[in-house]
Amino acid sequence: MNDSLPTSSTIATGTESGAAESLRQRELIAAIFSPNPVEVPSYGMAQTGCRWRAGLAAYRGNGIGHARSALREQFPTLLAMLGDDAFDTLCAYYWRSCPPRKGDLAWAGVELPDFIDTVPELQDWPWLSDCARLDWAVWQAAGAARSRLNEEDLRRLATGDPQSLYLQLAEGVRRIASYWPIVTLYQAHSDPNPDWNAVTRSLEYRQAETALAWRPPENSASAPTVMALDEVTDRWVTALINATNIETALELAGNAFDFAAWLELAVRQGWLNAVIAKE
Amino acid sequence: MPTTALSCGIGLRQPHYREIMTIQPALGFVEVHSENFFNPHDAAAQVLVQVRAVYPVSLHGVGLALGSACGLDDEHLYRLAGLVERIDPVRVSDHACFARAPWAQGGIVHANDLLPIAFTESAMQIACANIQRVQDRLKRPILIENLSSYLDFADRDYSEPQFFAELGRRSGCGLLLDINNLMVNALNASDPDPLLSVCNWIDELDRLAPPGLIGEIHLAGFSVQQELIIDDHSSPVSEPVWHAYAYALEQFGALPTLIEWDDRLPALSVLLDERGKAMTLAERISLRMSASVKHSARLYGSGP
Question: Is the Cα dihedral B76, A29, B235, B243 positive or negative?
Answer without folding.
Answer: negative
